[in-house]
Structures are given as structure tokens and as C-alpha cells.
């Protein structure tokens, strides 16, 4: 007998599956939006009228990468916490 549909539709196991899915989606969205798209694929440069030296721009870019990478550690920890095995009865 396949209980998959019943178990994943509602209850404690479904709640844990949904929590894992939510944590993974949040982590992946953050990575895509803030690191990959936000920094790696960022188009354009700083307009010359702002008169910001290239070294300052690079320093700010590296600081953003560091801060956003640190946030990835938190998001990854949330995924691991959601994956912790819990006893269930059904």
C-alpha cells in the first residue's frame, strides 16, 4: 500500500517536508538574487559623474560578496535544521 499521497497531504511529515522545501527555496532565491544576479551578473558600471574610484567600487563589491556569503551560511543552517529527523507516528 502506497501511503505517500496521504502522508504528504497533511500532518507532521507534510509539515516537515514543506519546511525543508521552504528553507531550500529561500536559500536558492537569496543566492540567485543577491549573489549570482546581484553581484556576478550585475550589468553596467558606476557613472563617471559620481566620481567613485574603481578601487572603491571593487572594495564595496568584495564587502558585499563577503556579507552575502555569510548570510548563505545562515540559510544553509536553516535547511539542515529543517532536515533533522523527527519521530512521527501515522
Detail the poorly predicted runs. none
Strand content: under 5%
Order of helices and strands: HHH
Mean pLDDT: 82
Indicate how many domains the architecture comprises.
1
Largest sheet: none
What is the number of helices? Answer: 3
Structural class: mainly alpha
What do these coordinates show?
The chain is an all-alpha fold. It has one domain. It is 72% helix and 0% strand. It contains three helices and no strands. The chain has helices spanning 4-9, 12-40, 54-83. Helix 2 (12-40) runs antiparallel to helix 3.
Topology record:
Blueprint: H1 4-9, H2 12-40, H3 54-83
Provide a quick synopsis of the model.
This protein has one domain.
Features:
single chain; 90 residues; mainly alpha
